[in-house]
Design brief:
single chain, 5-stranded mixed sheet, Nucleotidyltransferase, domain 5, 6-stranded mixed sheet, 14 helices, alpha/beta
Length: 404
């Protein structure tokens, strides 16, 4: 079996573009340190973020980021089409311990499918969330951070201009990553939740503006990527394009059927390529990371409110997820909004997520579906920490060489 790198297969999104910062090859870790915002009066300022300890006194900074025994804080920010999410953590053995987090629905890509641009309202909502993130980065004295933007900024005509505005006003340097890098980071962040079965697996990430699917086989520490695909359909872009599933029961069914058709057409090429890998249906595995799968998993568990500890790592019968998806697609907005773990914020978008999920189950009919409340941010953190550890090891060898 030939193992392909993710660079061997071009995504079907040639009309989308990654910014100059996102042109790096998959697998490399960029050093996107936090940059304080520019001063409005043009004066230069100390580019080192000031930090304070728990008493409020200025914190002492190490001259070397590789000081032996010091546990640095790392941060990962994921600005998607629908959400803005931040995770700050410190290394803990082979894993890490989260010390701060933030998540807010910003709907940056709302209306993008029709206008081709990020709207003023969406950008203002997003700037508010990013200001909160910037304050957390300052307060936590983050040593190394990487901030990425995905589909909305890839597609928007004013995406680069918005990235520059964010840098000027918050100091956060967003990297518009390719769909290829987005898929790689999602796999890196959640593959540990797959069981130990040696069979092939598909990991998918249903986002706001796109969906990434990755076919993998087990590796030593990180799985081998056999094939992958990114399609420009996420819960926001699909909803905006096909329309919200409202009106009469028949009208809701018609829209949901159209959503399924649109997504299935986009998946067709990938489905054909991976068909020979699903010959033994008893061995194939499926793992999803997204708000769609975590929300549906919460409904499966009948949770009164969302509980990450109950959902992350859960394995659910696929048929149960299909049943929940079908039921949600037939409900009105008010009925969906009244369900625990959905609410009004997700009520109009969850149906598109259901359509995408069912289409994935059509092409990869695993009997069970693994659920991950982790993904790109965790992948970024692991990349940053691993790169820093390698640099520390290299620096240590150089120092030992001089001492000798």
């Amino acid at each position: 079996m030939k193992v392909l790198s993710m660079a061997d297969i071009s995504p079907p999104d040639s009309n989308r573009r990654a910014g100059k910062r996102g042109a790096e090859k998959s697998g490399k870790v960029a050093d996107f340190r936090y940059r304080p915002p520019s001063q409005p009066n043009g004066r230069k300022r100390d580019r080192t973020p000031k930090s304070r300890d728990e008493s409020g006194a200025p914190a002492q900074r190490s001259k070397s980021p590789f000081q032996k025994g010091r546990k640095q804080a790392y941060a990962a920010l994921d600005l998607g089409t629908n959400n803005c999410r931040l995770l700050i953590a410190r290394p803990s053995g082979e894993n890490f311990t989260v010390i701060d987090a933030f998540s807010r629905v910003v709907r940056l890509g709302e209306g993008l499918a029709h206008s081709g641009k990020l709207s003023d309202e969406a950008m203002e909502r997003t700037m508010g969330a990013l200001q909160v993130c910037a304050e957390k980065l300052r307060r936590r004295n983050v040593h190394l951070a990487r901030s990425v933007a995905t589909e909305a900024c890839r597609r928007a005509a004013n995406g680069e201009a918005f990235i520059e505005r964010v840098r000027q006003e918050t100091g956060i340097a967003l990297d518009i990553i390719t769909a290829e890098e987005e898929a790689r980071l999602a796999v890196l962040g959640c593959h540990v939740l797959l069981d130990d079965d040696p069979g092939p697996a598909v990991i998918f990430d249903i986002g706001g503006g796109s969906t990434e699917l990755v076919l993998i086989e087990p590796g030593d520490k990180v799985p081998h990527i056999l094939d992958w695909q990114s399609v420009p359909w996420g819960v926001v872009s699909l909803t905006d394009t096909v329309g919200r599933c409202e009106g009469t029961s028949d009208e809701r069914l018609t829209r949901y059927t159209e959503m399924r058709r649109v997504v299935a057409d986009s998946f067709a090429e990938f489905a054909e390529r991976i068909a020979n890998h699903r010959s033994d249906l008893s061995r194939i595995r499926l793992l999803g990371t997204s708000g769609t799968v975590t929300t549906l998993a919460s409904l499966h568990l009948e949770l009164p409110h969302y509980d990450r500890r109950a959902v992350d790592g859960l394995v659910v019968p696929s048929q149960s997820m299909r049943t929940i998806s079908s039921n949600l697609s037939s409900m009105s907005f008010e009925e969906r909004g009244g369900l625990p773990c959905i609410g009004k914020d997700r009520a109009d978008l969850v149906v598109a997520g259901c359509a995408i999920l069912e289409s994935i189950l059509d092409i990869w009919p695993s009997e069970r579906l693994g659920v991950a409340d982790r993904g790109i941010r965790e992948g970024i953190l692991r990349s940053l920490m691993a790169a820093d550890a390698r640099a520390e090891h290299k620096l240590g060898k150089l120092r030992n060489g001089r001492d000798d």
